[in-house]
Hints:
Chain A contains 9 helices and 10 strands. Chain A has helices at 44-52, 74-78, 97-106, 123-135, 151-164, 181-192, 207-213, 231-236, 238-245, and strands at 6-15, 18-28, 33-37, 59-64, 67-68, 82-84, 169-173, 199-203, 216-221, 224-230. The longest helix of chain A has 14 residues, at 151-164. By secondary structure, chain B is mainly alpha-helical. Chain B has one domain (2-237). Helix content of chain B is 73%, strand content 0%. The termini of chain B are close together. The chains are: A alpha/beta, B mainly alpha. The A-B interface holds A 52-54, 73-75, 78-79, 83-84, 86, 90-96, 98-99, 102-104, 106-109, 111-120, 122, 143-145, 147-148, 161, 165 and B 174-175, 177-183, 186, 189-190, 192-201, 204, 207, 211, 318, 320-326.
Amino acid sequence: MTTPALEVKGLDRFFGGLPAVKDVTMTVQSGERRLLLGPNGAGKTTLFNLIAGDFPPSQGAIRIFGQDVTRKTPNQRTHLGMARTYQIITLFAKNTLLHNVVISLMGLADLRFNPFSDLRRQTKLWDEARRMLGLVGLSHLAERTVSETSYGERRRLEIAMALAQKPRLLLLDEPLAGLSADERVDVQRLLQSIPRDVTIIMIEHDMDVALAFADFITVMQRGRIVVEGTRAEVVANPKTKEVYLGH
Amino acid sequence: MTRTLLLWFAGVLVLVALPHLIGSDYYINIASQVLIAAILALSLNILIGFGGMISLGHAAYLGTAAYLTIYLTAQAGFGHISGALIAIGATTALAMLFGFLALRASGLGFLMITLALGQILWGIAYRWASLTGGDNGLGGLTRPHPFGIDLANPTAFFYFVLIFFVIALLGIARFIQSGFGQSLQGTRDQPRRMRALGYNVWLIQWFSFVYAGFWGAVAGLLYGYYHQFVSPQSLHLTTSAETLLMVIAGGTGTLFGPVVGAALVVILKNVISAYITRWVMLLGFVFVAIVLFMPEGLVPGITRRVQAIFKGKSRPEATPLASIAEDNAT
Lengths: 247, 330
């Protein structure tokens, strides 16, 4: 049996006295497409932030590819093969799209510690960044600054930056949020083209897209996992309807 | 690239010709002071402009290196080279410690820690009179004679400082265009994102802090040689604030902004004060005018206005093809 991409055991996170994530245990197998569902405030993004290492859990353990990362920093987790996108787009607004991807590529390269080499002369890095932009259909905007692009283009850039790191575990936080119908189709197609050796955990509210994408679904409510199973199991579970419809 | 090289070459040529153009020893000395202040401002700009870390304790490195140089060379019997190397090495080590302490906080907390650390050093220099001479300071240093050149001569000393200035400028220019420098700018803009991309934000900021401290120490060494005397004033908050003013007035995050800012402040301080008693008030007015009319600083502000004239546009426009690296190269 292969090592799971992600194992979360008994994870708690309190903000003051408020439990944002409570006793969450889940295992995501390598290559799996996992969907995290739940209403606003269910703790999905907090769980993402805990997995990514943005803040430590109050209790519990996180393992990525068999390695305990509970006390590891976000950058250490990234070097283990994890990449993520953000619910609120987080880009370098004054830089070009190309430069954003270069920064992403450099995050895993020794070049990031080199104070002598001129970054502009690293042609391999820039070429690779152009290739990544091509993958998400943004080649024609490569030299444009982020502030001059549309919301949908920024979402695609976020994905390009995550994919540039050749992750083994990819966390996508609402990658379709705020996109037009056409852009949704583009991004959906892009997500489906990601090879199966990349494990994907995605938070998404668009049920049609999300259900079509996922192998396995985890439904959260008030910080806890309330339903977990395959698409059919989760859709058939009355608890899912209760979480979404409130009865 | 050729254009950039030509501009650099022309700039160095003008500086080399400067003593012959201005003639008077007094103004040559002012030019030396401008270059020393520019090295200090350039080093502070690494933190403020490229790292987003506003420090109010940068005089610590100027003063410490100056005190050590004078103490070691004039009082402890060290030679000029060993005294200089120890002074720069020890001051850089101090920057390592101060960086470690200051980077426990960010934003206002960082500013307050740097301020406090700088004031501790000022307090030591002021109170530990048996070692530092207290309020009277330390003196007795004679300038070195490298290759038999007498640096007591203002023109020779100007060229001596110019060599350090050019090395500092080139070193810092390369630093900000390097992978590391770009990483630093990323940590300034999106520290959380940088962590998620695999960058050790703390380490990048700490190393940059130490690098800035190193160049601050070089400025301190030259300051010691120039004045041949050092007092607690070199470590005081006002010196740090003045350096901060140079960076902000010239333009943070630009390579030449701090140089222009240093020239402005040093000239106002030394030349205008000969004619106006309340020169500090004038400096205040100039600073307010810069903030009102060119809030981004003199270098980016003037560049914007010149570009607007040539393009016939009055408002700034984002340049396509602009990347941090390209911005900083200009």
